[in-house]
Amino acid sequence: MIQDVDATLKELLVRMVPLDAAAIDVRFEVPNKEWSATVTRPTVNLFLYDVRENLELRSNERFLTRRNDRSGSEARAPVRMDFCYMITAWTTDVADEHQLLGRVLTTLLRFPVLPADVLKGTLTAQPLPLRGWIAQPERTPSPWDFWGNVEHRMKASLNFVLTVALQPFADGDVELATSSTVKVRQIN
Fold first, then answer.
1. If residue 149 lies in a helix (H) or strand (E), which one and from where to where?
2. In this predicted structure, what is the pLDDT of residue 83?
3. Which H/E stretch holds residue 131?
4. Which of these, 32, 111, 115, 157, is most buried using a 10 Å CB contact count?
5. More confident residue, 129 or 169
6. Phi, psi (rounded to 5 degrees) for 55
7. What is the DSSP letter of 21?
8. 3-class secondary structure per residue, 54-107
9. What are the residues whose beta carbons fall under 8 Å from the beta carbon of 108, sequence distance 6 or more?
10. Could you tell me the CA-to-CA distances from 102 to 5, 11, 37 in Å, in that order?
């Protein structure tokens, strides 16, 4: 499922930035010193550093679907998960990195809800729209902590959070309550 999130984001960037797939790589690696030493072409890297439930969107609702007059199925609301990415651009020239990162930023700002035609795998059947937040201060980790933990020099980056609805619960069959109307009449 996470691979579908990655594939969707790659499709969005390749199609909408657009990134020349022959000239620019899109990768999903830990941006540490060892990895950056292997980068030989301009690269946009989306490092997934955190996955957690979005508690603001948590819902305990249940949805009932009636099949006939006596039975139906009950489904719980999906769990909303935030996938947090640190996006960086890697080239031999800082000006090129900034230009590439700026193109990615502009594209992600244009699509706060991901378009259906870029969704891949299990994300094509999402019950709710995939919503993205780019460069939101309250959702951004400390750059000093982030780059210190991946043991690399600090560089320009974008924080991107994509909220995905997951349905880990199976629908349950339920018997529906039935009612009858009885009319009582008094006889004199």
1. helix 143-149
2. 96
3. strand 131-134
4. 157
5. 129
6. -70, -25
7. T
8. CHHHCCCCEEEEECCCCEEEEEECCEEEEEEEEEEEECCCHHHHHHHHHHHHHH
9. 132, 134, 158, 160
10. 22, 18, 23
Lowest model confidence (mean pLDDT) among 27-31, 38-42, 100-104, 150-154: 150-154
DSSP state of 6: H
CA distance linking residue 179 with residue 27, whole number of Å: 59
Sheet holding 79-90, edge to edge: 25-27, 43-53, 79-90, 158-166, 131-134
**55-65 CB burial, b ≥16 within 10 A, e <16:** eebeeeeeeee
CATH class of 2-59+78-171: alpha beta
Q: Which residues pair with 89 in a beta bridge?
A: 44
Q: What single-letter DSSP state applies at residue 93?
A: S
87 bridge partner residues: 46, 158
Contact 8, 123 (CB under 8 A): yes
User: Read out DSSP for 114-130?
Assistant: --GGG--GGGGG-SS--
pTM of the model: 0.80
As to burial, measured by CB atoms within 10 angstroms (0-12 exposed, 13-18 middle, 19+ buried), residue 105 is middle
How distant is the alpha carbon of residue 75 from its chain centre?
A: 22
Q: Give the amino acid at 182.
A: V
